[in-house]
């Protein structure tokens, strides 16, 4: 892609939206700048892959086991772009106890912990494939829940 862009008063250059989309650049992504004489080159800095193909499947980088660890790439991407919310002992315990008192078990207790983190972060939206369970756990947040 070729485009003319200008430099603003702060020395910033806005990359055209089409270029950002083509290169999958998002907010806070890092680019490497290289200049030589009159040429300037920008390259996206991508995290190192956590997985590699081995034994006909996908495995951890440097590992010898079999299995599919593609989810690790997703987790790494989320971790690079989001703030991690943690619960202290009291928040965790009260959430688990409250969910158990309502008759929730196993995965729904985990969902309750996720919703407690969202509450603590004052999340604007909560994305889940399981709207029914999430809305049952935290009905007052139902209008903030969406499917991806």
The helix content is 25-40%
Task: Report on the biggest sheet.
Answer: 2 strands, antiparallel
Q: Using DSSP, what is the number of strands?
A: 6
Residues in β-strands, percent: 15-25%
Task: Calculate Rg over CA atoms.
Answer: 22 Å
Structural class designation: alpha+beta
Average of per-residue pLDDT values: 81
Quaternary state of this entry equals single chain
| Basic shape | elongated
Strand order of the largest sheet: 1-2
Distance between the termini: 31 Å
- Helix run count: 5
Keywords:
148 residues, Pemi-like Protein 1, Chain: D, 36% helix, elongated, 3 domains, two-stranded antiparallel sheet
Written overview of the protein:
With 148 residues, the protein is an alpha+beta fold. It has three domains: 1-46, Ribbon (Pemi-like Protein 1, Chain: D), CATH 2.10.260.10; 51-81, no CATH class; 89-146, no CATH class. 36% of the residues lie in helices and 16% in strands. The chain has five helices and six strands. It has helices at residues 17-22, 70-81, 89-101, 106-120, 131-137; strands at residues 31-36, 39-44, 51-54, 57-60, 126-127, 145-146. The strands form three sheets. Strands 1-2 form a two-stranded antiparallel ribbon. It has a two-stranded antiparallel sheet with strand order 3-4. A hairpin with a 2-residue loop joins strand 3 (51-54) and strand 4 (57-60). Helix 3 crosses helix 4. The longest helix has 15 residues, at 106-120. The chain is elongated.
């Amino acid at each position: 892609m070729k485009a003319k862009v200008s430099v603003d008063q702060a020395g910033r250059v806005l990359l055209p939206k089409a270029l950002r989309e083509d290169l999958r650049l998002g907010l806070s992504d890092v680019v490497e700048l290289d200049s030589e004489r009159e040429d300037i080159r920008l390259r996206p800095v991508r995290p190192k892959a956590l997985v590699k193909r081995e034994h006909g499947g996908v495995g951890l980088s440097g590992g010898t086991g079999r299995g599919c660890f593609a989810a690790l790439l997703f987790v790494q991407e989320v971790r690079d772009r989001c703030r991690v919310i943690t619960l202290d002992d009291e928040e965790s315990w009260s959430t688990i106890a409250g969910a158990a008192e309502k008759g929730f078990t196993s995965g729904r207790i985990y969902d309750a912990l996720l919703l407690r983190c969202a509450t603590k972060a004052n999340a604007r939206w909560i994305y889940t494939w399981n709207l029914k369970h999430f809305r049952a756990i935290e009905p007052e947040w139902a209008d903030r829940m969406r499917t991806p």
